[in-house]
Every structure is written in structure tokens, then in C-alpha cells.
Design goal:
CATH class of chain A: Alpha Beta
CATH architecture of the largest domain in chain B: 3-Layer(aba) Sandwich
Radius of gyration of chain A: 19 Å
CATH topology of chain A: Rossmann fold
Strand content of chain A: 25-35%
Helix content of chain A: 25-40%
Shape of chain A: globular
Mean pLDDT of chain A: 93
Low-confidence stretches of chain A: none
Largest sheet of chain B: 6 strands, mixed
Radius of gyration of chain B: 19 Å
Mean pLDDT of chain B: 91
Number of strands of chain A: 10
Number of domains of chain B: 2
Structural class of chain A: alpha/beta
Helix content of chain B: 25-40%
CATH topology of the largest domain in chain B: Rossmann fold
CATH architecture of chain A: 3-Layer(aba) Sandwich
Oligomer: heterodimer
Number of helices of chain B: 9
CATH class of the largest domain in chain B: Alpha Beta
Bound molecules: adenosine-5'-diphosphate, magnesium ion
Strand content of chain B: 15-25%
Largest sheet of chain A: 6 strands, mixed
Strand order of the largest sheet of chain A: 6-7-8-3-9-10
Number of helices of chain A: 9
Distance between the termini of chain B: 33 Å
Chain lengths: 251, 272
């Protein structure tokens, strides 16, 4: 059975139908991608999973827990989210130590000190960063803190919303490598949202293409690489992702 | 024909630790072509573009041995000469639309003022431009104020505005970074046509090496305020500088590549 099962998910904000019938089944240990242009509903799918957006219709099951209006504390231990903007997602006046100890306190962990040190070590920051403030860190370091915060409760699932979109290419490579390594070491399951097809192709075995709140098509990494997309929209996305082709040069 | 000469351009900001030079001796010449400036954030791309237009924010200071546009010495241009140049013969699309659209004027009025043409003609051209930058509802955007538009919409409106004046030189600072890839390609097509058909010179500033490589004729690669490499875009794959090579290699590829991704190993010598 799938670890995450999304069936005909609909999410509306008043008049706005942000997600209009999306289904996906993600197996344990899999990395599943969602790509699409801005406003296509990618973030809303993740937010609905976390309970940050209303599930208007459809059914979502995560680790055998059918999701209703409320998420249990156990859910938040198993499923964690990492957001795009490493600047906005950390409280500016909280030290890294405080950022990391809060989830541990909420969930009643005792061995906080050793967990914090371990988490900092795992994301490649080290103990020297423990008492710094977010403004004393670069964008890539902040995103490492956000990943450490998500990992500290030892979740099984990470929901990653454009985790490298705000980073320079060289820093993106470091963060993608970190996420890749953590997944294989810990057997984590990922849903990774990105507008960048190359990032999703690198990180995910399967992906869903979204447009205007709908699922356009689901592809495996191999079919993406073979350019065997069935839908015109996916092909347009593929061709635009390769860069610019002067008019007339297109076959 | 050379449109712009830049010789030993330097931009300095005072800081508590003393003056910080953020552009350190940049030199290049631009013809009626597409010149890309790439580099990571903080490398000095935007400050280079702004200095050419005399828009270095105070208390920063820009100096150059030579800065000339179409025979005009920009280092000694009078305020009157600048007024005649900016927005008319030289335009700049800024990275953040918030800073270049007038917040208290509708998009339509700004477009018409930029057109330098009779009103009826300007109106038609404005609507055509909004359409050309793939704005689905041009009439709504025409009547809107900047704050009523999303980031991507604002960026498109700004590109439309810069193109209204049909400048001889366009400095485009990350003009498409807030746009979706498919729209981005359409905007590049418009810029391409202006270079090809009207002989406009284009400085295209971007952090996206792949995009610049496929769109521009020539590329300047900036690191810590300096141009570390200049090469034809077609030769990017054969770049010599380890920084340029590193930037290219660390990109994930749809067709698959190395895992883990190669990361950039910075060397102290690059910044000297
Ligand atoms: N909290 C909200 N209230 C109203 N509309 C929203 C809200 N969140 C998202 N939307 C709308 O839902 C649509 C999908 O948004 P989103 O999921 O953020 O797209 P993506 O992540 O693909 O860019 C957009 O039209 C957006 O404006
Ligand atoms: N107003 C300013 N005061 C002081 N330093 C500045 C100012 N604007 C930019 N800088 C610094 O100049 C350097 C180059 O900035 P910029 O040209 O914006 O880089 P890029 O566009 O390549 O990201 C950066 O280190 C930045 O911090
Ligand atoms: Mg989003
Ligand atoms: Mg910039």
C-alpha cells in the first residue's frame, strides 16, 4: 500500500479553485515530484497534506491515517514540511538553538541537546552554528537549518516546497546532494515541488505535471528523459527548460 | 559598430570597515548584439548595469576611465543629457518591478508616457505590447496600479514599458526571473527581435547560465566584482575558468548526470 495516497483532491479558497482533482500514490522510500508553473496549485497540494490548506473534496491518507480537518501530533512527527524561502521561514530573533529545540519541546523529547547537535552535524553545519541568528547565516545555511528543523523529529516523510529555488546554483547543488544523501541514509519519503524540471528529474523517480490546478500527466524519470511525454503542455515545458531556441531554428 | 564602451568601471560603497569595492575594474565594448552578464548573487552584476546608467545608489560612487554611449561621454553627461538618454535611448529593466514602476500611476499611463508618440498611436502600441508580453487581459492591466499586479505581471508590465520607447540600448537585469519558463522564452523572443530587426544593443543580466548560453552572443562571467572570463556563448561548454566550469557542472540536468552533483570548490585566487 502507498505511504501517501491522494485521491481526487480538491482545494478551494472561496471562489479560487486552487486544486481541481489531483490524485497520486507515493510509495515508502520514493521521491515523488510535482512540477508546474506558478499558480498551478503545487504548494497548495503540499499545504493540504499538512493541514495548512482546507481539503474541499477528495481523500488523503498518510501512513494509514485518513486525514480530516485536524492533524494529530503523531502526524506532525511523521510528516514535516520545508518551505521555499529560507529568509521568511525562520524567526529573525530566534537563535538556531531555539529554532531546533522548539519542536523537540512541543513533542516532549528529553535528549534535546544531543539531538540538536546531531541534526546540525547531519546537515553539515556543526555545533559552531548553534547560537547564531538567521541574519548571520547565508541563504544556503538557512535552508540547511530549515532541513535540520524538519529532520529533528525523525519524520518518515518530507514535503519539500521549492527547497532550492531561492538559492544560487552552486548552493542548490549542495542542498540537493544533502537531501539525496539523507533520503538514502534514512529511507525517507519525499514529495518535492519545483518549477524546475531539471531539479525534479534529478531528485525524483516519478513526477506529476500540474497546470491550472489540474494534473496534466504523471511520468517516470525515464520517460521524461526519453522525452516521451503524452501531453502537449509537458512537451512545451520540456522544450522551454532546455533554454532559448531562435525562431526558425525549431524543427 | 560599437554602441557602448566601458573601461575600468569601479563601484564603491562606504562601509563601517572602510570602502567596499563591489565592481572592480570591469571593461567591455557592446555592439548591436546580445551580451550576457552572469555570476552568482553579490558578484556585482546589478551594480555594473546601474553604473552604466548613472544610477549608482548614494552613498555609493562609480568611476571609470571611459564610459561612452554612441559617442556621448557618460562620465561628464549633464542632467539634461541624462534626461534625454534615460528611458528614451537607454532603458533598464530592473530586477524588482517595485522599484521601477511608478506606484501612483496606472500601468497604461506609464506605458503611454514612455512611448514618445501621439496619444492614440501610443495607446494602441501599449495594448499591443501588453499582449506581446503574454498578458492575458491587457485592458485590466492597462487600468491597474502596480500594487494590484503579482510579481510576474509587474515584471511583464515593466518589460512592456521599456520596449515602448524602442531604446538603442536595453539593460535588462534578471528581466525574466519571476516568470514561468514558457513565458520567459516568449519575452526573450521579443528582445531577440529588437536586436535582430532594430539593431538594439542588449545587456542581459542573469544568474541562469544555461539561459544566457542559449540566448546571448557573448557572455561576461563575473565573480567578486570582476570579469573572470569573457567568451562566445557558443563556447560556454569549453569555458576555461574553473568558476565558469563549476557553475555549469553544478546544474542538474533533465537527461541525467552525476550524482552527487559536482559542487563548486571556490579558490581564494579567483577574488584577487
Ligand atoms: N490562502 C490562499 N487564499 C487564496 N488563494 C490562494 C491561497 N493560496 C493559494 N491560492 C491560489 O491558489 C492558486 C494556486 O497557488 P499555489 O498552490 O501557491 O501555486 P504554485 O505553488 O503552483 O505556484 C493560485 O491561484 C493562488 O493565488
Ligand atoms: N546600496 C548598497 N550599499 C552597500 N553595498 C551594496 C549596495 N548595493 C549592493 N551592494 C553590494 O554590492 C555587491 C554587488 O551587488 P549586486 O551588484 O547587486 O550583485 P548581483 O546583482 O550580482 O547579485 C554585493 O556584495 C552587495 O551586497
Ligand atoms: Mg508554490
Ligand atoms: Mg542583481
Amino acid at each position: 500500500m502507498a505511504l501517501i495516497d491522494i485521491r481526487d483532491l480538491h482545494v478551494s479558497f472561496g471562489e479560487v479553485q486552487a486544486v481541481r482533482g489531483v490524485s497520486a500514490a507515493v510509495a515508502e522510500g520514493e521521491s515523488y515530484g510535482i512540477v508546474g508553473e506558478s499558480g498551478s496549485g503545487k504548494s497548495t497540494v503540499l499545504r493540504a497534506l499538512c493541514g495548512l490548506a482546507p481539503i474541499t473534496a477528495g481523500a488523503v491518507t498518510v501512513v494509514n491515517e485518513p486525514l480530516g480537518r485536524r492533524r494529530s501530533a503523531a502526524f506532525h512527527r511523521r510528516v514535516q514540511m520545508v518551505f521555499q524561502d529560507p529568509y521568511a521561514s525562520l524567526h529573525p530573533r530566534h537563535t538556531i538553538d531555539r529554532v531546533l529545540s522548539e519542536p523537540l519541546a512541543i513533542h516532549g523529547f528529553a535528549d534535546r541537546e544531543s539531538r540538536i547537535l546531531q541534526a546540525l552535524d547531519e546537515v553539515g553545519l556543526g555545533a559552531g552554528f548553534r547560537f547564531r541568528y538567521p541574519h548571520q547565516l547565508s541563504g544556503g545555511q538557512r535552508q540547511r537549518v530549515a532541513i535540520a528543523r524538519a529532520l529533528i523529529l525523525e519524520p518518515r516523510v518530507l514535503l519539500l516546497d521549492e527547497p532550492t529555488s531561492a538559492l544560487d546554483a552552486s548552493i542548490q547543488a549542495e542542498v540537493l546532494n544533502l537531501l539525496d544523501r539523507l533520503r538514502s541514509e534514512r529511507g525517507l519519503t519525499y514529495i518535492l515541488v519545483s518549477h524546475d524540471l531539471a531539479v525534479v528529474a534529478h531528485m525524483c523517480e516519478r513526477l506529476l505535471v500540474m497546470q491550472h490546478g489540474r494534473a496534466v500527466e504523471e511520468l517516470t524519470r525515464d520517460s521524461l528523459r526519453a522525452r516521451s511525454a503524452a501531453e502537449a503542455y509537458t512537451r512545451a515545458l520540456l522544450s522551454a527548460s532546455e533554454g532559448y531556441t531562435p525562431a526558425g531554428a525549431t524543427p | 559598430m560599437t554602441l557602448l564602451h566601458v573601461d575600468n568601471l569601479r563601484v564603491t560603497f562606504p562601509t563601517r570597515q572602510g570602502p567596499a569595492e563591489v565592481v572592480r575594474g570591469v571593461s567591455f565594448a557592446l555592439g548591436r548584439e546580445r551580451l550576457g552578464i552572469v555570476g552568482e548573487s553579490g558578484s556585482g552584476k546589478s551594480q555594473t548595469g546601474r553604473a552604466i546608467l548613472g544610477l549608482t545608489p548614494p552613498p555609493g560612487r562609480a568611476t571609470a576611465d571611459r564610459l561612452s554611449f554612441d559617442g556621448i561621454d557618460l562620465c561628464r553627461a549633464t542632467p539634461r543629457q541624462w534626461r534625454q538618454l534615460r528611458g528614451a535611448r537607454i532603458s533598464m529593466v530592473m530586477q524588482d518591478p517595485k522599484f521601477s514602476l511608478n506606484p501612483v500611476m496606472t500601468i497604461g499611463r506609464q506605458l503611454i508616457e514612455a512611448a514618445r508618440a501621439p496619444r492614440a498611436e501610443a495607446h494602441d502600441r501599449a495594448m499591443a505590447m501588453l499582449d506581446a508580453v503574454q498578458i492575458r487581459d491587457p485592458a485590466r492591466v492597462f487600468a491597474a496600479y502596480p500594487h494590484e499586479l503579482s510579481g510576474g505581471m509587474g515584471q511583464r508590465a515593466m518589460i512592456a514599458m521599456m520596449l515602448m520607447a524602442e531604446p538603442d540600448l536595453l539593460i535588462a537585469d534578471e528581466p525574466t526571473s519571476a516568470l514561468d519558463v514558457t513565458v520567459q522564452i516568449e519575452v526573450l523572443r521579443i528582445l531577440d527581435r529588437l536586436v535582430e530587426d532594430r539593431g538594439m544593443g542588449l545587456i542581459f543580466i542573469s544568474h541562469d547560465l544555461r539561459l544566457v548560453g542559449s540566448f546571448c552572443d557573448r557572455v561576461l562571467v563575473m565573480y567578486a566584482g570582476r570579469v573572470v572570463e569573457e567568451l562566445a556563448a557558443a563556447d560556454l561548454a569549453q569555458a576555461r575558468h574553473p568558476y565558469t566550469q563549476g557553475l555549469l557542472n553544478c546544474l542538474p540536468r533533465i537527461e541525467g548526470g552525476r550524482r552527487p552533483l559536482p559542487t563548486l570548490q571556490r579558490e581564494a585566487g579567483w577574488a584577487l
